[in-house]
Amino acid sequence: MASFCAHVQSIVRQVPPGRVATYGQIAAMIPPPEGADPRGYERIRAQWVGRALRSAPADVPWHRVINSQGRISLPAGTRSAAIQRMRLQAEDIELDRSGRVDLDRFGWTGPGRSWLEEQGLLPPDRREHPEPLRKVTGATV
């Protein structure tokens, strides 16, 4: 688990100000631990990211990690949730009235391929927040 936490912290340090990543997106970059069942790992890996961030040092911008619906996962009304919201807003990341961040607008696409390869990590999982639809001559593609 220590190696997993180190990977999480390293990846989250790459998320630039004004951008957010999802727990699942971060988790998808980290290969399953040796001997782990890949399907079992896939089901719990995003939760492991949350656990890894609970003990992250102060230089890890944990507030830039939200859930796949674009929401803060911390319990509403808690001090931690308020701090996360405040830090996101301080980086000009907008939350709508329901507390949701627009992942198409503020989502991070991940670190560069060379950095990932140097770290022994995988490319980000694009399913977590797919690229926005683009209009081409009136048709949506």
Description of the molecule:
The protein has 141 residues and is mostly helical. It has a single domain, classed as Orthogonal Bundle (Arc Repressor Mutant, subunit A). It has six helices and four strands; from the N terminus they run αβααβαααββ. It has helices at residues 2-12, 23-28, 38-54, 79-90, 103-106, 113-119; strands at 21-22, 65-66, 135-136, 139-140. Strands 1-2 form a two-stranded parallel sheet. A two-stranded antiparallel sheet has the order 3-4. Residues 127-141 have low confidence and may be disordered.
Average the pLDDT over all residues and give the rounded result: 89
* Percentage of β-strand residues: 5-15%
Which architecture would the CATH scheme give at its second level? Answer: Orthogonal Bundle
Write down how many β-strands occur, each being a DSSP E stretch of 2 or more residues: 4
CATH class: Mainly Alpha
CATH superfamily: Winged helix-like DNA-binding domain superfamily/Winged helix DNA-binding domain
Uncertain residue ranges: 127-141
Terminus-to-terminus distance: 41 Å
The helix/strand series, from N terminus to C terminus, equals HEHHEHHHEE
Widest β-sheet, arrangement of strands: 1-2
- CATH fold category name: Arc Repressor Mutant, subunit A
- The domain count comes to 1
What Rg do the Cα atoms give? 16 Å
Looking at the structure, what is the overall shape? globular
Question: Main β-sheet, in a few words?
Answer: 2 strands, parallel
Instruction: Give me the number of helical elements.
Output: 6
